[in-house]
Amino acid sequence: MEAFSGRPPGPGRHPPVGRSRNGRARRIDLRSAAGQVFLLQVVIVVLLVVAAVVGMVLQAASDALQQGRRESVVAAQSFASAPGVAAALQSRNPSAVLQPRAEAARKRTGMDFIVVLSTKGIRYTYPYPREIGKKFVGDIAPALKGRTVVEQVGGPPVPAGRGTAVQAVVPVTDSRGKVVGLVSAGITVKNAAGLWLPQLPIILASGAVALALAITGMTLVSRRLRRQTYGLAPVELAQLYEHHDAVLHAVREGVLITDADGRLLLANDEATRLLGLPADVRGRSVRELGLPEPVVSLLSSREEVTDEVVRAGDRLLAVNKRPTYPQGDRGGSVVTLRDTTELAEISGRAEVSRERLKLLYEAGVRIGTTLDVRRTAQELADVAAPQFADLVTVDLLDTVLRGWEPTAEGWRHLRRAAIGGEPRSIPVYPLDEVIAFSPRTPQMRTLQEGRGLLETDLRRSEGWWEQDPERAWKALEGGLRSLVAVPLRARGIPLGVANFYRMADSPAFEPEDLAFAEELAVRAAVAIDNARRFTREHTMAVALQRSLLPRGQPEQDALEVAWRYLPSEAGVGGDWFDVIPLPGARVALVMGDVVGHGLHAAATMGRLRTAVHNFSTLDLPVDEVLGNLDDLVVRMDNEKNMGDAVDGQEGEEVTGATCLYAVYDPVAGTCTMARAGHPEPVVVRPDGTVTCLGVPVSAPLGLGGYPFESVEVSLPEGSQLVLYTDGLVENRTHDFDVGVERLRRALDGSGKRTPEETCQAVIDALKPSHPSDDIALLTARTRMFPPSCVAEWDVPPDPAVVPSVRARCRETLREWGLEETGFATELIVSELVTNAIRYGSPPVGVRLLHGRCLICEVSDGSGTSPRLRRAETTDEGGRGLFLVAQFAQRWGTRYTTRGKVIWTEQPLHDSESAASGPAPVDFLLDQFDLGQFDDPGL
């Protein structure tokens, strides 16, 4: 502000930039403003002198020309009217008479020439005699008519030299008035230069005086300018002013300068805006401007003010005031104004931005906590409402909810996946409803264009009205105001639309809100797409796992079975169970758990389940089954390690599994079981007592080299055997022992329940809200074969007793009412007993079991198993097992600690299927001689 205050720099202040430091300030610099003004004045003085000389010359020439014209006319008329001229022209030799007289008159009058002419323009006289007789140069026609002619022409040389001649031509008349000749007198113009030459010194002297005065004046003006501009050059001064003016009017702070009388000297643009000043404020008193009284009082006082807040209309202004001349009494002050109202508004915007960032952070924390598509969509709606919008709806493509890859064909049909906020009286589509949007709706447009759309006023949104006019009208009546619709896109693929609504009592959405909604949608879309992809993989894995698990209960008489299987939220696991019918009405129960989740665990579970089925078909003891499973898991690990070693990942993952294998015999009422790292089964006695069977635990599968212990326990009829995986009793909230105790409490009083009721009660009591591991539960209630349905006797090792065995078998079948199967059963028993006596070793026994089918068992002490073969025509034997296989539905051999048992199963009440068998009895008897059978009793 110093450049405008008028204060000279103090003695201790440095000269401003641009002040001369080498003495050049004492002489005029032609590059300075004063030097340029001086040079201009010199040019003006020179031009004035030249103009004066030129004017004087022109004036003198004009005067000389006029004088020459007058003198020419007088001289010509005087000579023409002289006595004897007319007579001389009519004489014989006019030139002889008139030449001397014309020359005498020329010299006497000072003319340059006096020429006497004939009427034909022939010269009779001339200063140079050689020109006499030649044609006159000039216009003589008017003179022949009696008029005087004055003209400027150039002609032959004259004594005065060449130049423009001014000549007058007058007629010469006789006494009768007849023109008898012409007289021309003239003078050259250059002869008039003597009129202005004497005045030339005066003009030059005047120009020199004017130039000296200009130099003196410019020197004084230059010195004063230097003092007032502190030696700044004009360019520097102009730049200083431009910069000062730019800063003064561009700064976001009002600046006022007043004088000692309170008149306003300066007000920048910001001060004019803040105070609402008129355009013509310079020089007016602050009391005449109509300002608020607090502002007028502050501007009129001479006190200094620091950050005093005053109100000016709807603004709060922070005022600072300082005097312009603090060391003198000239008065005046500089006032600065700062709008704290806008600072508060800026602070409000910063607060809004901070809240938006906080909301984005909260969205990153709260959205995507699970891998469920609907849950993720609801999290987006809950985060945005009511902090950003009053009502939020999320509509997803049906394919997204199912986990499939979305396509453009399904855009028209979106399913309402989430609603956030309070709909109040607004009619919104309910959850899970399929909505068919029209092409002009904001939802469909945002899907097609791939960008968010802002509808500030829904009353003017034609596409929104087009969807459902009645529903739209009710929504507007309910207070709906504006909408932001943004697409949910991930990896460039549209997943759905998020709709953010605001009510009439909330501010309408602005472009900044659209950008924020798009950012929020981007974060949510990634989480939704992750959940979609997980849903797809989870569905595939569940489908694979379900295909590997039992699809129905097998037919068997030993147990009443029910089960439950609940997959975890973390992904498909490797839990499995099985109910496998075994020979002799026995049933094998299997419960296993493969470590890990996903397709690998499900595939491993499938392999182990298949292996258990194969081992059970061989009817191996329970400990051998687990031993073979252990070997299989070890081989699977070795195969995987060999495959991973190629990729440099040897031993990264090792297959681990637990398994419980139990075989229940309904005839003996015993259950033999062994477990490899699996939780111990629980038994609910018929009286409701819950106990553990004390099955010794062995190492999990896959460790290799460890033996597996088995135990045989007696189970009363009606006991419930409960098998489960660790996901039922163990989770993040409690450990395994607490879970087992909770299971025991859930099973209390289950003695009278059915297995189905027991399973449901356990699941209701122990199922976690968000299972982190698969849960498999199997409940089996035991049954016993009644003694009346069991027939068993020992057979001496003598072929002669075979007929008595057939007779006893026939009698037993008659008691059971199975006469229809008598012949086939007798044939089977006869063949098996004959083989046992002939090829086996004592003791030999026969057992018949009457259940859903008729079971025949023949045991002996030999470990050699018979095999079926086709006998040749010349063979004496070898057709007995062929007959057995034809009449029995199933047959096989199982080994015991005391030998082996050959068993068969025959369906009951199925005479039609038996009659349509591939080898009827009549056909067999026609083909084979009875003497060829192994049984001599036949």
UniProtKB/TrEMBL annotation:
CDD domains: HATPase_RsbW-like, PAS. Residues 1-23 are annotated as: Disordered. PROSITE patterns: PAS (PS50112). GO terms for molecular function: ATP binding; kinase activity; phosphatase activity. Pfam families: GAF (PF01590), HATPase_c_2 (PF13581), PAS (PF00989), sCache_3_2 (PF17203), SpoIIE (PF07228). GO terms for cellular component: plasma membrane. It is found in: Cell membrane. This is GAF domain-containing protein.
